[in-house]
Specification:
DNA Cyclobutane Dipyrimidine Photolyase, subunit A, domain 3; single chain; binds flavin-adenine dinucleotide
């Protein structure tokens, strides 16, 4: 399988997308399905580019203040990482009670949802788009999650596990915590939507007049609190769900070979660290691609994602290993040094001998765990008057990377708004 044409697996493609960001249009149209969103998420998730690199690239071309909508949305990504850092695997379980007890929700995703034949155009278009492109607009993700949890009574975790597998940008923090935000197990109230909302933000093919969501918010709220799932209209034949793979698919890998790294300095290139080689990497090091077997066994990927990540990894490495922790430990025992970039998807699976460098964060570490985005945002923006005050841009500047960040507007407090 080839990577989906929308997302060439190159660093240049990520830079082209950064250069194309139009912050004013973004702020105005971000909620519309055909709005001026960046489609940078597959590149960000897999580390082709970091958040500081994204913001520096945009700020080099446009005047942005620190409370600009675009900066704020980058904040959501880092906030979800903050929650993962502090709560660990707890994010995979309901953080608090939702509308119904956990056992009130089904543990399987119905076939009509998987096959895009629910009879609700907004949902069926979302699923078709997901399979065709490997990504989704934020609003479509919210509609899908809300329909699955609140109307069909499927547990948010079931929907989250399924969606994250099909996305090119699948990220455990952003995905699972967003599902919890929609479900109301990670936020103060559930997210509900109706046909009027769809008509406002989506093109006509998505409009869902006359379907189960064509009702008032009071009715939706009552349906969400009821234990009874709504029935699907199950129209037409639908589409076939793409297969998911737990082992490398269409990419060349080999078991770890100690001889390939004996006495050498090694830089591990894992699927979440696909940036350009940089100064931290020892001169003359051998770059080894790593597919962490335990992660992939637990979290299958679509063929399109294997192709996207595999093509980029092949361009960065001379050898690629599909390895579990034990076989990696043995193979690396004779290496002179082993380093990589830390990432929570893989860090716990790496042997002790691997020195993990902290990735660059855009925003300041707030120290202790924050239970809401607005608390985190107000803390991390304390004393930040212009983009140049953001630690990620300072660090990037110190490395001599992309140009000056400008703008000077006082950081003010924010109230919670939908992600
Ligand atoms: C149910 C659900 C599941 C989601 N799953 C994922 C996921 O697996 N991976 C993922 O990266 N994002 C996820 N998101 C967040 C968001 O929908 C995507 O980041 C965004 O749609 C990606 O498109 P874009 O790059 O065009 O975003 P833009 O709107 O152009 O934003 C630029 C970047 O800011 C960050 N960002 C923007 N909005 C959000 C947000 N609400 N939450 C977190 N980060 C944000 C992303 O890194 C994004 O690439 C999910 C949201 C929901 C509601």
């Amino acid at each position: 399988m080839k990577p989906l044409g929308l997302f060439p697996a190159t660093h240049t493609a990520a830079l082209v997308r950064i250069a194309a960001v139009r912050p004013a249009d973004y702020a105005r149209s971000r909620n519309a399905i055909d709005g001026a969103v960046t489609q940078l998420s597959p590149y960000i998730t897999h580390g082709f580019v970091s958040l500081p690199e994204v913001l520096a690239g945009v700020a080099a071309r446009h005047r942005l203040d620190v409370q600009h909508k675009f900066v704020f949305e980058l904040g959501w990504r880092e906030y979800f990482r903050h929650v993962w850092q502090h709560r660990g695997d707890e994010i995979l379980h309901s953080l608090h009670d939702g509308l119904l007890p956990d056992h009130g929700y089904a543990t399987e995703l119905p076939a009509d949802i998987r096959q895009a034949r629910t009879g609700v155009p907004a949902i069926d278009m979302t699923v078709r788009t997901l399979y065709a492109t490997g990504t989704l607009h934020n609003h479509a993700r919210m509609w899908l999650a809300s329909y699955v949890v609140h109307l069909r009574k499927v547990h948010w975790r079931v929907g989250a596990d399924w969606l994250v597998a099909h996305l090119l940008d699948g990220d455990l923090a952003s995905n699972h915590l967003s599902w919890q935000w929609v479900a109301g197990t990670g936020s103060s109230k559930p997210y509900l939507f109706n046909a009027e909302n769809v008509a406002r933000y989506a093109p006509p093919a998505w409009h869902s007049t006359g379907t189960v969501i064509d009702c008032s918010y009071e009715t939706l709220d009552a349906m969400a609190r009821s234990e009874r799932p709504v029935r699907a209209a199950s129209l037409g034949e639908g589409v076939e769900e793409p297969a998911l793979w737990k082992v490398p698919r269409g990419v060349i890998t080999a078991p770890p070979q100690a001889a390939e790294v004996a006495g050498r300095d090694v830089w591990l290139v894992h699927p979440w660290a696909l940036g350009e080689p940089h100064a931290d990497q020892p001169e003359g090091c051998v770059r080894v691609g790593l597919w962490p077997a335990e992660h992939h066994a637990a979290r299958p990927w679509s063929g399109a994602r294997w192709a996207f990540v595999g093509e980029r990894m092949a361009s960065l490495t001379s050898v690629r290993w599909h390895a579990n922790r034990d076989s990696l430990t043995q193979a690396l025992a004779g290496a002179h040094s082993v380093q990589t970039l830390a990432n929570p998807h893989v860090s716990g699976l790496l042997p002790h001998c691997v020195e993990q460098h902290a990735p660059m964060h855009l925003f300041a570490d707030v120290g202790h765990s924050c239970y809401s985005f607005s608390t985190w945002w107000n803390r991390t923006m304390r004393g930040v008057k212009s983009l140049g005050d953001l630690p990620g841009l300072t660090a990037l500047g110190a490395r001599g990377a992309t140009g000056p960040a400008h703008g000077a507007v006082t950081a003010t407090s924010v109230s919670p708004t939908p992600p």
